[in-house]
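Morning!

This is the sequence you dropped in the shared folder:
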Amino acid sequence: MLTAGTVFVGVFFLFHVFEADLTAWNRFRTSRHQNYRFIKLKGIIVIQWLKKINRSRNYFLKKNKLHFKLKMISLLSNRKKVRKAYKNKDIKHILLSFISKGIGDAVVIGGIVDVLTKYGYTVSIIADKRTYFLFKEWENIKGLYLYSKENSTQLIEKLKHCEPFIFVDSHEITHSNLDTFKLIYELKPHQTIGFTHKYSIYDSVISISNPTGHISTRYVDLLRHFNIEIDNYDYKVIIPEADKEQAKNFVKAKTQKKIISFIPYGSVSERFFSDDQIAAITTFLTKYKDSFHLFIIGEQHKIQSIPDTEFTTKNTLPSFFAAAQIIKDSSLVISPDTSFVHISRAFDKPLISIYPYKILIAPENNADVWGPNYDKARQIRLKERRLMDADVVTIIEQVESLITKIH
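The structure's back. C-alpha cells below.
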C-alpha cells in the first residue's frame, strides 16, 4: 500500500526526471538554433565573398577588354606612317579633347587656353554636352565642337577641313578614351599628345613631373612640352552677363549683408552632408546673422528639403553660371563638391573644402590630386570614406576659425 511519503518521493523523482528532460530538450533546441544561425551566417559570408570575387572578375575583364580595344585602335591608327608624312611641319593649332569630363575639369583646364594663346598658339576644343556650355563665352578659342556618338561622323568631316592641328588627349585613361581614340583614328591629326606610354597612338607623351601631385601640375608639364614656362597656373570661368545680372539681383532681393555660400552635397553620395550635419552647420552660422546671409547652393532636387529662414536662402536659379556668380560674390565658401572648390579658386575666394578619404590609383590621393591648392583655401582631409560619417564639430571649428578672420 502506497503511503503519502512514497507518493511524494515518486512525484519528486518524476519532476526531476521531467526537469532534466526539459533542460536537455532546451539545450538541444538552443544548440540547433545556434547551429542554424551559424550555418546561415556562413552562407551570408560565402555569398558576400562570391559577390566580391565576381565584382573583381568583372572589373578585371572590363579593364582588360578596354585595354585590348585601345591597343587595337592604336595599332590600326598606324601613327608611325602619319608622323613620317607630316615630319618637320610647324603646327600652331592645338585641339584639346574634352570628352566625358566634369565641370571641375573644365575650370582647371582654362589656364591652358589662356597661356597657349598668349604664346601664339590657336586653340580649339571638343567637348560633350556636360561641359560644352562652359566654353561658349571664351573669345580666345578658335573652334568649339560639340561631340556626341550620334554626331561623330559629321564632326569628323568638319574637323578634317580644319587647318592642321595637334590633338591633345586628357590626363587619364577611362572608357571615354574609346571615343577619343576613334577620333584620332579617323582624323589622322598631324601630331598627337597623351599622358601615358601604354599606347602607340600618341606621338609624344608628357613626362609628368609629380605623378601624385595636384592635377594642375600636369598641365604645367604640358605647357613645358611646348617650351612654355610659367610661374602661376590660373583657373578660368567666364560668366555670361545675363547670368551675372540675374544672380546679383537674386542676392540683392534677399540681403545687403556679406554672403556665405554653403554647398551641402557633392556629385556623389560619399560627399553628402547628413541632415543632422547640415542643421548643425546652419545653426552654428546663425551666430553671425547680423553680418552675413547664408546661401545654400546645389542641384535643386537635392537642396529643396532645406528650409529657408530669415538668415538662410536656397539658390533657386537653375543656371550653373548664376551659382558661380554667387560664389564669386561670397565672403566665404563651404564645399565638399570639387567643382565649386575649383570655381572658388578661380575667383580666389576664402574656402573650407572637405575631402573624404579616397585613393584614385594607388598611391594617388584624391585630396592631393583634386585639392583646392591655393592660399585662401583650407582643406579638411577626412579619414572617413563618407562625409556623413565624419565629426561635424571638427568642420565647424575650421569654419569658425576662418570666419573670424573675415568677420
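Headline: Residues 7-15 have pLDDT under 50 and may be disordered.

More detail when I'm at my desk.
O.
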